[in-house]
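Page 37, continued from 36.
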């Protein structure tokens, strides 16, 4: 709900197979077994207060948040504006406007979002981190991100 208070989440996809060894289009590269375990454990990191799950359409991102969405009775919505190389502006705006949202993206988009928020002097706990299956939890008040905290990847 726009203008509401709560927490929104930005997740980097879990561990995927090697980009160099993958011979099909990169968008189809799936999670490894370790990545699947990380994805299954995201509920322990994010918790149950989720109202919507959006993901880059890349398979590894969709697979990262599918277990969380399924457990919460939600569906994952593919969103091109979270794809690798995307402009971080949309993700920033959506995180601020939609507490309860989980967005799954790639390292480059996550890094850009974290950098942009850091430059606004919003308190950020955890440094500039964006490990695979790592999550940023953003506290939203009145449609603005007022704090961020890095949640390390589940093991």
């Amino acid at each position: 709900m726009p203008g509401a208070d709560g927490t929104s989440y930005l997740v980097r996809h879990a561990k995927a197979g090697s980009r160099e060894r993958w011979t099909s289009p990169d968008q189809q590269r799936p999670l490894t077994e370790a990545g699947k375990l990380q994805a299954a454990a995201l509920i322990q990191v994010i918790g149950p207060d989720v109202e919507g799950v959006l993901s880059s359409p890349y398979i590894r991102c969709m697979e990262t948040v599918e277990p969380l969405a399924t457990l919460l009775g939600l569906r994952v919505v593919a969103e091109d504006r979270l794809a690798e190389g995307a402009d971080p502006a949309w993700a920033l705006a959506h995180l601020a406007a939609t507490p309860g949202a989980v967005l799954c993206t790639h390292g480059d988009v996550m890094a850009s979002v974290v950098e942009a928020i850091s430059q606004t002097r919003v308190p950020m706990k955890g440094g500039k981190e964006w490990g695979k299956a790592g999550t940023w939890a953003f506290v939203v008040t009145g449609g603005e991100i007022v704090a961020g905290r890095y949640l390390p990847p589940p093991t």
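The first strand starts at residue 6 and ends at 12. Flag for discussion at group meeting. The helical segments are 33-46, 59-71, 88-97, 107-118.
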